Amino acid sequence: MAKIKHHNFLNTVHEVFTDAKQAGVLHLYAGGKSFSGRTIEVEGRELYHFGTTGYLGLEQDARLKEAAKEAIDKYGTQFPLSKSYISNPLYEELEGSISEMYGHPIVITKNSTLGHLGVIPSAVDDDDVIILDHQVHWSVQNAAKMLKTRSVPIEMIRHNNLEMLEDRIKKYQHSKRHIWYMADGIYSMYGDYAPVKELMALSEKYPQLHFYFDDVHGMSWTGRNGTGYVLDQLGDLPENVLLFGTLSKTFGASGAVLACSNTEMYDKIKTFGGPLTFSAQLEPASVAAAMASALIHLSPEIYDLQQELRERIDYFNACLSTTELPLIDQNESPVFYIGTGMPKTGYNFVNRLMREGFYVNLGIFPAVPVKNTGVRITISRHNEKAEIKGLVEAMQHHFPLALEDTQTNPERVFHAFKLEPKVKREPQQSTELTIEILDTIHQVDKVAWNRYMGGQGAYDWDGLKFLEAAFQGNIKKEHNWLFRYVIVKDSKGIPILMTFVTRSLWKDDMLAQAQISAAIEQERKEDPYHLSSMVLSLGCLFTEGEHLFWDKSHELSGSARDGLLELMEKMEHHLGAKMTVLRDYGANTNWNEALYGHGFLRVQMPNSCTVDLTGIDSMTMYIEQLSARNRRHFRKDIQPFFDLVQSEIIPKANAFQIQEFKRLFGGVQRRNLGLNTFSFPDKLFERMNENDLWEFIVLTPKGKPKTILGVMFCYTNQAVVYVPAFVGMDYDLLETFSPYRQLLYRTIERAIALKLPKIDFGMTASFEKRKLGAKVHEKYAYLQTNDNFIMEMIGVMEGQH
Fold first, then answer.
1. How many Cα atoms within 13 Å fall on the side-chain side of residue 699?
2. Per-residue pLDDT band at 425 (split at 50, 70, 90)
3. What is the per-residue pLDDT across 465-479, written as a single tens digit (0 to 9) for each?
């Protein structure tokens, strides 16, 4: 498999959001001429509002509204000056009140995103290190990444994984001044907590450990003076903690607040903090509204409001406890998450609830893994118990219907979230389809396999027989691949779908940028299996091409496709894989919508290359039919080396040659960090040498037959297609002899001599192959992961190396 192009994260997010927008659950517009907080108008219908982050409902409090209106009358709509020069007349009073709430100095920022961008680069020194919880809010991650330009290391750990955190602390405890761990207090999707007390115990063990908590979702609804979950757990604010709260969301106004008990740190941040210095300050109306809210927070009334919300949260939890709905994390926060698993199920469920009169949020990638799509429900003081009960009844009724509509079941949802179903049901088997799962190609009818799957790549029946022998029974686990063959037939026994899948060990950075893999390889010198996972994939790492036969004209084609996807989901679980990869699809595949709906992300692969040799009976004829530009390339970059090198077709190599082939291929494989894979087993080359369908195109300098410049490993598929599977080269002689271009030329020459009508040139170096007349095809892969950790961790590493 060739290098997959660097994944454009924004493009993927755009495709996912577009899919959700088309389903009518994202990028909606609220209607109506007024807003109460209890209901929200969507597309002309008044819905009960279970999507707000204003948990206490203070944004509708008359005192905040009056204060805002009065401030506009007195001071205008804005105060257009940087706070570094002068603050509007209301700021000083607000800062005093917020400081009184926290009991420590504070900094007010325009919003939390700009606040993080201002504070983190000021607080973190060049000799510090940052460790991110992989579910910490995007705004924190984005601000932390700014420090890459100062060479501050940034690490990431799995969510709330204290063992992993301690490992990272030990890694840096003797080399870094401060170790910053950055996390949310309350996480915005599942509503779960940071283990604050356990983290503080860890800081007693490692004094250089500092914390940066974003507690905007814990603000107001809990804690002394409504200062949030984190401070409630801490009791007081230690000097090794920076705490972000919010003046928006539950607080009811606008802006954000940083609390800091370290005087030196506070002065450093307050004096100069990027956006804190240069960005516009809060509008007078926002400052006045925040001041009115601060007075409520400083009064006993805040505890009455918190209790009213608590009663609603407890009631919602009680109602949910009598259902079989997959509540992902049960706690006392106002944020709840009901899993749906596949995005298409989430779309269906949200639309059903809106038709019943309830507005909820869809949780979707990148906030959650694609296969962990679900419904985020927030409880506020606006919600009455009758509508809370009504929402639960609506969810209980519509959840199984949404599953049925999207051809899934509760077990798949619970499995996606690693939960045990409350009630287990036997899955219903389709009477229209038969799905066969075979353990070896020897159990598959050779004629049938070659009819539907032959004629491309190195995976006709004989090719797979070869691969099974080469990648089984080896010493190292990365050299042992498990093969499975899937055939979906209709009631008459006619195949609708046919494919093969493998489970094998992949390096987690296999698809990452080369410089990231180079850094990870340094750690693999100590731990060879660092950041590696079992992956279930269509095809295997040795093959390229359309690994799937699918009769899209068959009336049961959709059922066959969905049957394969559900089967692979089960196989991933039973075989212990961490990711499923489907490849190699064209740009306009009929599977695109279905795969997004099943929780797959699309990534672009390198272009695939083929050569059509129909009607070509000589190399001279082939060169003559090239374009003028490509003929010039041949005369300038290939033909001049003919006098320097000679090629030979070797069907059976001697022991010396086989060792040289291994060495040359190993050099290519080690250099290709853009496709960072484990090596192939040594016996692969011996078995290739014993197999009549394989041969070697060997390039040597003229007069020096024992000096091998390069070798192309070629397979003949059913006398239909020639497959140059991979290449070995001596990089020290690359410029002198141009071995790669010479091998491409000799491969075409050999295919013509064999009278083969096609070459499958694979996905490497499409630029060079195009110049020799290859046709280029766009190719895509679809990935489904158990979580976003690896993707986000590699994203954090980008730019550091």
1. 28
2. low
3. 999 999 999 999 999
Please tell me the predicted confidence (pLDDT) of residue 1: 33
Q: Is the pLDDT of residue 422 over 70?
A: no
Identify whether the C-beta of residue 38 lies closer than 8 Å to the C-beta of residue 49: yes
Dihedral sign, CA of 352, 353, 354, 357?
Answer: positive
Most confident segment among 2-11, 209-218, 501-510: 209-218
User: For residue 742, what are its two tokens?
Assistant: 């010479």
In whole angstroms, what is the distance from residue 550 CA to residue 560 CA? Answer: 8
Contact call for residues 26 and 51 (beta carbons, < 8 A): no
Phi, psi of 103 (to 5 degrees): 80, 15
Sheet with 154-157, strands from edge to edge, namely: 106-109, 256-260, 241-246, 209-214, 179-184, 129-133, 154-157
* pLDDT above 80 for 429: no
pLDDT band at 194 (very low <50, low <70, confident <90, very high): very high
Domains of the chain: 32-59+302-416 (3.90.1150.10), 76-287 (3.40.640.10), 433-605+782-797 (3.40.630.30), 608-780 (3.40.630.30)
Residue carrying structure tokens 């939890």: 317
The one-letter amino acid at 108: I
Burial class (CB in 10 A: 0-12, 13-18, 19+), 747: buried
Contact between 119 and 770 (Cβ < 8 Å): no
d(CA 116, CA 256): 10
Q: Is residue 799 predicted with pLDDT exceeding 50? A: yes
Look at residue 280 in the predicted model and tell me its pLDDT: 73
What is the phi/psi pair of residue 166, to 5°?
-65, -35
The letter for the amino acid at 314 is: D
Is the distance from CB of 221 to CB of 212 less than 8 angstroms?
Answer: no
Query: φ, ψ for residue 137 (rounded to 5)?
Result: -55, 145
Provide the token pair at 777.
């095809």
Of 575, 579, 599, 586, give the one whose Cα is nearest residue 537: 579
The pLDDT of residue 666 is above 60: yes
Q: In whole angstroms, what is the distance from residue 463 CA to residue 248 CA?
A: 62
Nearest to 453 by CA among 504, 484, 493, 487: 487
The two structure tokens encoding residue 262: 């370290």
For 617, counting Cβ atoms within 10 Å of its Cβ (0-12 exposed, 13-18 middle, 19+ buried), the class is: exposed
Give just the sign of the alpha carbon dihedral 726, 730, 731, 733: negative
Q: At which residue do the structure tokens 């196989």 appear?
A: 571
Lowest-pLDDT range of 108-117, 442-451, 534-543, 780-789: 780-789
| Torsion 231-233-239-240 (CA) sign | negative
In contact, 647 and 795? CB cutoff 8 Å = no
Cα–Cα distance for residue pair 567/573, rounded to 1 Å: 10
Alpha-carbon gap, residue 33 to 40, rounded angstroms: 11
Residue 284 to residues 82, 231, 303, 348, 601, Cα–Cα distance (Å): 13, 28, 27, 43, 44
**Could you tell me the pTM of the whole model?**
0.86
758, pLDDT greater than 70? yes
Pair 268, 238: CB distance under 8 Å: no
Question: DSSP per residue over 578-641, as a string?
Answer: SEEEEEEE-TT-TTHHHHHHTT-EEEEEEEEEEEE-TT--SHHHHHHTS-HHHHHHIIIIIGGG
Give CB contacts under 8 A, 24+ apart, made by 123-127: 123/180, 123/212, 123/242, 123/265, 123/268, 123/269, 124/152, 124/178, 124/180, 125/177, 125/178, 126/150, 126/151, 126/152, 127/176, 127/177
DSSP state of 104: S
